[in-house]
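About this split. The held-out portion is used to measure sequence recovery: a designer receives only the structure tokens and must propose an amino acid at every position. Recovery is the fraction of positions where the proposal matches the reference. Here is one held-out target exactly as it appears in the evaluation file.
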């Protein structure tokens, strides 16, 4: 240590001022050198990141532009695209491959040279990235950046691979090194010369310069301003300002390029999205077959209707699709085959009013549905045939319900009409005594009343189906008073006890339509008496309970009649269904259907329980009335919304 100290004493100037100048100069030179190294490291990383970003953006742009040429097999368009892309500065090599790595186009050039098209050996393939996602890296030499980008249009179509030179990065490092060394020498010289009387101002200026240089990565073109001290210090500020301006311009140019690329990407994505939306929103299915008879395209409606996935449809021959249809057909033996649906439009059979009668197909999977299927021949070289499929299940169900309605109505009206007609014919053909005449007239009157009841029920149900609660006038009513009124107005059959109202002391209020609620109670009482020959019919008022849409208040109507089996109970609310198959009990089978519709439209629920030979209990839950006017208005809105939802799920007959 003593020897080193003696050597340093001999080498350093003996004068304190010179020694201080030398030490400061050496220290400043070392500082500037370290700062230059850090700057080179940071600028190199920034430049390399910029090169990778530009390479990835160019690869993505080429991938987006090559989707349609690959789908349409336009290799000349791909080659033109690659030649244009090769004009990008510092680009060395660019190629497009298919999904297996086989080249579809390859263009290369040397730095400063012109692009040239390369033809890879037939069957040769390059190693592809393991995942279909963008990738960028460096080759082994570190002189170039390799960028990958997948070409995706629903499925993986291929890859874009490009190489870009990083030689400009070495030149950038040399320039930064040179600028740093010059700046360090100038700063050291000026500091040594002016250290005696300008040390304080110079140190302050250097500190400002250092802070500004360190913040160049975050500064957007701002200037450092004038620096105090020597010319070198001011020149250092000018150089830093120029560097800040150049960095800001470069960053702005990069941002503008990225914005342009993003805009182009958004335009392409929007166009693709519009086309996809048009096909996706179509409720009808559409298939196209290529010249080889394989499925080329199918929209989302076909997958939804058929229940098949894309792998089971796209690219499959017509025979495979035919087998899938047959397996899903409700009657596979009656399935005519896919070929039978293909015909020109003018060969379709003409139906009523000159309309075309399209062939129909009934499927049992994935759900029971009726389809209209029309196959058309195409003269396009790329599309040989088109298959159009339309779901007409709803229309078929409406036709069936109309036929069922007319058949049942005609049958139910025919029975009383026959009796009335018979009584009138007897009275016209023969003379009867007063008692017999009164008996025949009473029979005709009862049958006419039955016919009026049947017609009223049919009209009630038709009005309910058509209006779906639009004519309901809901109000806040006490349920016990409503039930008491309904029981008071009801006239039981001769020889039967009047219905009993139990637990009527409850003070529950409901928000319902008075007339419709009374109709519900009358229908339930009528059924209870018709299906029980003896015993009392009881009406129980139930306690409040919580429901999904709010609190509910209910009542039960119980009888001790013939009851129903579980199978009958499951169908009791179906239109025109009657639990009495003997025909001894009059009615249309619409009573419980009307009850269910009215209760549902008022926001309530219906529950049934029955045991054969023991009786039936029907429970009706109605929405509780709110406590203020605003809640009443809200309750009315809820009922109207429920009516609208109910209308959407129940077609009007």
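Reference sequence for scoring:
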């Amino acid at each position: 240590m003593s020897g080193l100290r003696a050597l340093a004493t001999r080498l350093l100037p003996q004068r304190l001022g010179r020694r201080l100048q030398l030490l400061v100069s050496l220290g400043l030179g070392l500082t500037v050198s370290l700062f230059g190294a850090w700057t080179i490291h940071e600028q190199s990383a920034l430049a390399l990141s910029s090169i990778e970003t530009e390479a990835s953006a160019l690869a993505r742009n080429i991938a987006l532009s090559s989707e349609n040429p690959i789908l349409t097999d336009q290799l000349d368009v791909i080659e033109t695209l690659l030649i244009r892309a090769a004009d990008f500065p510092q680009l060395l090599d660019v190629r497009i491959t298919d999904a297996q790595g086989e080249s579809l186009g390859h263009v290369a050039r040397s730095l400063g040279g012109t692009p040239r098209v390369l033809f890879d050996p037939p069957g040769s393939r390059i190693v592809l990235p393991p995942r279909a996602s963008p990738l960028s890296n460096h080759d082994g030499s570190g002189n170039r950046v390799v960028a990958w980008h997948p070409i995706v249009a629903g499925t993986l179509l291929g890859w874009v691979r490009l190489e870009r030179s990083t030689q400009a990065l070495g030149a950038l490092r040399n320039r930064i090194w040179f600028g740093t060394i010059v700046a360090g020498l100038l700063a050291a010289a000026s500091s040594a010369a002016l250290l005696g009387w300008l040390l304080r101002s110079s140190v302050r200026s250097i500190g400002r310069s250092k802070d500004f240089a360190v913040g160049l990565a975050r500064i957007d073109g701002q200037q450092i301003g004038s620096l105090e001290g020597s010319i070198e210090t001011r020149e250092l500020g000018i150089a830093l300002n120029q560097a800040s301006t150049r960095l800001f311009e470069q960053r702005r140019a990069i941002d503008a390029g990225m914005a342009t690329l993003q805009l182009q990407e958004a335009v392409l994505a929007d166009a693709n999205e519009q086309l996809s939306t048009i096909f996706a929103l179509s409720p009808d299915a559409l298939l196209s077959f290529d010249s080889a008879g394989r499925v080329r395209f199918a929209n989302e409606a076909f997958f939804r209707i058929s229940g098949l996935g894309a792998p089971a449809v796209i690219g499959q021959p017509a025979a495979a699709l035919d087998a899938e249809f047959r397996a899903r057909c409700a009657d596979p033996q009656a399935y005519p085959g896919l070929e039978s649906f293909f015909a020109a439009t003018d060969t379709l059979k003409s139906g009523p009013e000159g309309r075309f009668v399209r062939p129909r197909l009934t499927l049992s999977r994935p759900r029971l549905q009726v389809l209209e299927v029309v196959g058309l021949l195409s003269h396009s070289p790329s599309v040989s045939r088109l298959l159009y499929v339309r779901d007409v299940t709803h229309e078929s169900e409406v036709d069936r319900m109309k036929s069922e309605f007319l058949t049942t109505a005609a049958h139910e009206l025919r029975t009383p009409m026959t009796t009335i007609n018979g009584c009138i014919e007897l009275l016209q053909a023969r003379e009867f005594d007063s008692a017999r005449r009164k008996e025949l007239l009473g029979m005709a009157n009862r049958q006419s009343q039955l016919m009026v009841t049947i017609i009223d029920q049919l009209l009630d149900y038709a009005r309910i189906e058509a209006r779906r609660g639009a004519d309901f006038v809901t109000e806040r009513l006490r349920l016990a008073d409503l039930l008491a009124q309904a029981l008071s107005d009801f006239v039981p059959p001769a020889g039967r006890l009047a219905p009993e109202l139990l637990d009527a002391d409850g003070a529950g209020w409901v928000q319902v339509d008075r007339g419709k609620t009374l109709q519900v109670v009358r229908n339930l009482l009528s059924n209870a008496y018709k299906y029980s020959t003896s015993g009392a019919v009881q009406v129980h008022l139930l306690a409040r309970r919580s429901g999904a849409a709010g609190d509910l208040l209910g009542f039960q109507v119980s009888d001790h009649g013939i009851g129903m089996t579980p199978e009958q109970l499951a169908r009791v609310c179906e239109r025109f269904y009657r639990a009495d198959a003997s025909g001894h009990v009059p009615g249309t089978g619409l009573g419980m259907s009307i009850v269910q519709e009215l209760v549902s439209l008022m926001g309530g629920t219906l529950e049934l329980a029955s045991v054969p030979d023991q009786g039936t209990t029907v429970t009706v839950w109605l929405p509780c009335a709110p406590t203020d006017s605003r809640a009443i208005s809200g309750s009315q809105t809820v009922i109207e919304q429920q009516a609208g939802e109910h209308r959407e799920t129940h077609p009007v007959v």
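Annotator remark: The chain has a mean pLDDT of 78.
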